[in-house]
Amino acid sequence: MNRFLLLISLCTTFLVSCQDEESTAQKPVTPNAETVLKSEYGTLLDKYFAESADFNETLKNLKAEMLAGAESRQATIKALQADSTLKQAEISSLKESLAESQAKLNDCKEIGVALRAELQGAKNLGASEDAIRLFEVFLEKHPTGSVSQKAQSRINHHKRRMVIAKNRTLACPLRSGQSRFQAARLSTSTQARSALESIIGRKADSAKRGSSSEFKEITYFWRDYASDLAGGFRDLVVETVDDKITKVYSGETLNK
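RE: above sequence
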């Protein structure tokens, strides 16, 4: 009995399922897509292909421009890098030259200090032959430069001072000189210059001609020959006309 009922139930279920499938298959399908004419479709397709070709051409041109710009920028970058490398090399060379110059400058400063010390040692000797000889030796070792110029200046200074010192050893008061000239009768001599040089012991330091065209007027100067009571020295001035003494006096400047 139970088996019979189960069989009836299965048959009923199968029949219902078949009816549902049949009803589902019979439902009409409504299309959603819009339909267009074939001519319109061809026009739209041609327009699409034309726009696509224009787009591809534009894209190609832009790509070429970007590539050319990239190559130009790359070339500029390489040129700048090369220039930077060159400038860096120049800077390095200048730094080396500066370092060498600084080292030479330091050496020159040290040499200058030593030279000045050597010059000072010669200077401390005063006006003497020994001082002049030291300066001359210094010039032989260092013939150029500002220090050598100072050495030459000191040599000239010492020579002048030595001449002055020698002149002053022969100096005498003006009256004593005049008396000596009178005793030698130089006022009547026609060789006043040679006679004066013989009595004084040296040639005149300088001479000055007069303005007369009729007579031979010459004034002679002997530096520091006339001693002064104030402790200084004056130049001896002798005026001559045609090599005869006309006037003897001392200069106005007092040399200490």
